Amino acid sequence: MTCVNLIGMTANLAIDLDRSSPVPLYFQVAEQIAEAIRRGDLAPGARLDNEILLADKLGLSRPTIRQAIQYLVDKGLLVRKRGVGTQVVHGQVKRSVELTSLYDDLRRAGQEPATRVIALEPRSVDEEIAAILGLEPGTEALYLERLRYAAGEPLALLHNWLPLGLARLGATDLETRGLYELLRGAGVRMRVANQRIGARAAGQSEARLLGERRGAPLLTMIRTTYDDQGRAVEHGSHVYRASHYSLEVTLIER
Amino acid sequence: MTCVNLIGMTANLAIDLDRSSPVPLYFQVAEQIAEAIRRGDLAPGARLDNEILLADKLGLSRPTIRQAIQYLVDKGLLVRKRGVGTQVVHGQVKRSVELTSLYDDLRRAGQEPATRVIALEPRSVDEEIAAILGLEPGTEALYLERLRYAAGEPLALLHNWLPLGLARLGATDLETRGLYELLRGAGVRMRVANQRIGARAAGQSEARLLGERRGAPLLTMIRTTYDDQGRAVEHGSHVYRASHYSLEVTLIER
DNA sequence: CCGTCGCATTTGTCTGGACATTATGACCTG
DNA sequence: CAGGTCATAATGTCCAGACAAATGCGACGG
Prior knowledge:
homodimer, alpha+beta, Arc Repressor Mutant, subunit A, Chorismate lyase, 6-stranded antiparallel sheet, 8 helices, 28% helix, 36% strand, DNA-binding
């Protein structure tokens, strides 16, 4: 277990390394730098020591340090410039959107999410859904329809299709946890999601369920999520009350 | 200039390497694999040769090959699994959203975009815009308002604020090119963008400009873009006709 | 006084190797 | 035949070093 002070002049940043831990060294470094940025020990604009010096101080090789820094650059926390150095980004950039469900997002924001399961049953898929999920038309998939509340108010109407046998989903589970959390718990490893975001006016039945007037603007999201091997694991078609919700996305150019 | 056949059994993928080119080797490899995937020479699910063999065939080191593959994994084209190998993702995943403007997107989609510049002038910024752009309240910034058409139809109403002195923007330029293209051409290097996407009903003046009825659903996007060093270079507040446009986003979990 | 050239600094790219960790399937055992 | 065990294969992590390229700044010269 090493412990070294980084970044000479500007701040005193201590980094612990535990070589016996299964956590990769580059990740230990990255996490602790990120933590220092979050705490404010590394102010926006602060320059890190150069990679070689850093590697030296920590007793690591330069590629390992580079991997740690690269990880943070990809997350948008650091910026590198050849011939200049590595700096903490100025604007406070929010964490890049991850593969999370609305439920997780709400709970992280301190809201009190609740869910009403409207439908949860195998249904035969039409041609479009079959093509999306990579199934034969006419076979069955799990159909799921939920109404999501936040702070006691209806917020979103969620429709999902999932391949059968992916996870044992009970209505009770779905009322106390998010779909993504349940899938992850069942060993499903989601990797890529493709979303299409749009808007439209509320129809009559939607309006009633969501407590809006007919014609009220709704935010729509259609999302397909793929796992490890590129197999579709979930297809969702959701509508949100635009008056109560918006989506946040962070883009990072390599 | 080397030229080697890759991927033993499944397909015949030739990769040219030009060591005298200034283009990094890992990038040459990545581009050509990506091209093969786009062409279909590498079908979804196809397994690549393992990294060591690949490195051997191309006369490169393993880290270089890994860098090429990592680049494609980050873009969502490939999937790696330890102990198994590297595969082309199954679902045809669209290209991850880059830092492009609506104009570029439209032109790439084969549409014929047109722009009408409504306002282009320095204006003193209020407190909110000042905080976003990192300026003092009351100082001036460039205010820009445009109406964007596609296929002859009005599509979006775009409002932008930019720090002064960033680039010389003429109304003529803005009518023939996208804002992002102009900024890039002026040497501005955009790196991170933060977007908030929502929806609301059209107001009267918006509706008139966009050719919609009052109350029609509009897709809204508020975006702040930061450069290299984390300085804000652009803040936009845009509304799109939901009936004619939707946004696409691809998320990739590392 | 100003511009240009060159140098030092720093990240970018690349090499060649070593060992660890994790899936997968074949094999052996109960 | 079922189950666990072990070998194998592939990616993940890490090391030590070399040269290239870009940037910024200072020194030199016009």
